[in-house]
TrEMBL record:
Record-given protein name: Vacuolar protein sorting 26B isoform 2
Family as reported in the entry's similarity comment: Belongs to the VPS26 family.
Compartments where found: Cytoplasm; Endosome membrane; Golgi apparatus, trans-Golgi network membrane; Prevacuolar compartment membrane
Gene3D superfamilies: 2.60.40.640
Organism encoding this protein: Theobroma cacao
InterPro entries: Arrestin-like_C (IPR014752), Vps26-related (IPR028934)
Record-level GO cellular component terms: endosome membrane; Golgi apparatus
Assembly mode: Component of the retromer complex which consists of VPS29 (MAG1), VPS26 (VPS26A or VPS26B), VPS35 (VPS35A or VPS35B or VPS35C), VPS5/17 (SNX1 or SNX2A or SNX2B). Component of a retromer subcomplex consisting of VPS29 (MAG1), VPS26 (VPS26A or VPS26B), VPS35 (VPS35A or VPS35B or VPS35C).
Length: 300
């Protein structure tokens, strides 16, 4: 059995590294096997430069039909698992057909790479960027090595950021007005607002504010919507009285938010909502939901 395992081992090792790998920021990335690894962080329009080292195992030569490196941006929908849709695909030929007897280093460069979408690991979809090195061979399977990296893109603060004002009511029983200071928030922002009770004729026992993420994938009959509650924040415990106002102050930084993704290559979108939940003494729940926009501000 051991002989068989040895027979299928590739005759070389492949190492992929970035030229500025030591100084470049590293961020955690969760792999398919559930393990988290640290990988290099890039943003759109950056140069991706590095080298590939191919090291034949001692005493073995590697006959090949050429060596190439690809930079791929891919979307995988989990209901179509294993099928990757490439929205970015760049290739550099590293070597012409021949034989490798000893360690060889190939520099590579992809200049000002257009990477419009951010890396994303969702409930039903993932978007990933990889470098893929392929050693093409005759009669036997190709030798392939992958290197993940993460892309995050930054947005300047919006020039217009209106407050949100809404009234919610149940006829002759409850009338409240709530106000959030703005409608667009960066990932480390604070939600500041106020809730006014104009009419209270039901016995409320508590009120909370939730942050919800809604991920929609696919289209038409194959649309899947997943809603996650990322945070619950108790605003009030006990019965309010008419004329009372309750302040809201909710910090976003403790929660693992992403920016709002409106339409990623017609494959998926991710939206965020503030959900106000009122619970009366008979445990009836009243909801009022409001979409907010989340963006990534360049960290200084």
């Amino acid at each position: 059995m051991n002989y068989l395992v040895g027979a299928f081992k590739p005759p070389c090792n492949i190492f992929i590294s970035f030229a500025d790998g030591r100084s470049r920021k590293q961020v955690p990335l969760k792999k398919e096997n559930g393990k988290t690894v640290m990988v290099a962080l890039f943003q759109s329009q950056e140069n991706i430069v590095g080298e590939v080292v191919i090291e034949p195992i001692q005493g073995k030569k590697v006959e090949h039909n050429g060596v190439k490196i690809e930079l791929l941006g891919q979307i995988e929908l989990y209901f179509d698992r294993g099928n990757f849709y490439d929205f970015t695909s760049l290739v550099r030929e590293l070597d012409v057909p021949g034989e490798l007897y000893e360690r060889k280093t190939y520099p590579f460069e992809f200049s000002t790479v257009e990477m419009p979408y951010e890396s994303y690991n969702g409930v039903n979809v993932r978007l990933r960027y990889i470098l893929k090195v392929t050693i093409s061979r005759n009669y036997v399977s190709n030798i392939v090595e992958y290197q993940d990296f993460v892309v995050r893109n930054y947005t300047p603060p919006p020039s217009i950021n209106n407050s949100i004002k809404m009234e919610v009511g149940i006829e002759d029983c409850l009338h409240i007005e709530f106000e959030y200071s703005k409608s667009k928030y960066h990932l480390k922002d604070v939600i500041i607002g106020k809730i006014y009770f104009l009419l209270v004729r039901i016995k409320l026992k508590n009120m909370e504010l939730e942050i919800r993420r809604r991920e929609s994938t696919g289209s038409g009959p194959n649309t899947y919507v997943e809603t996650e509650t990322l945070a619950k924040f108790e605003l009030m415990d006990g019965a309010p009285v008419r004329g009372e106002s309750i302040p809201i102050r909710l910090f976003l930084s403790p929660y693992e938010l992403t920016p709002t993704y409106r339409n990623i290559n017609n494959k998926f979108c991710v939206k965020y909502y503030l959900n106000l939940v009122l619970v009366d003494e008979e445990d009836r729940r009243y909801f009022k939901q409001q979409e907010i926009t989340v963006y990534r501000l360049l960290e200084t």
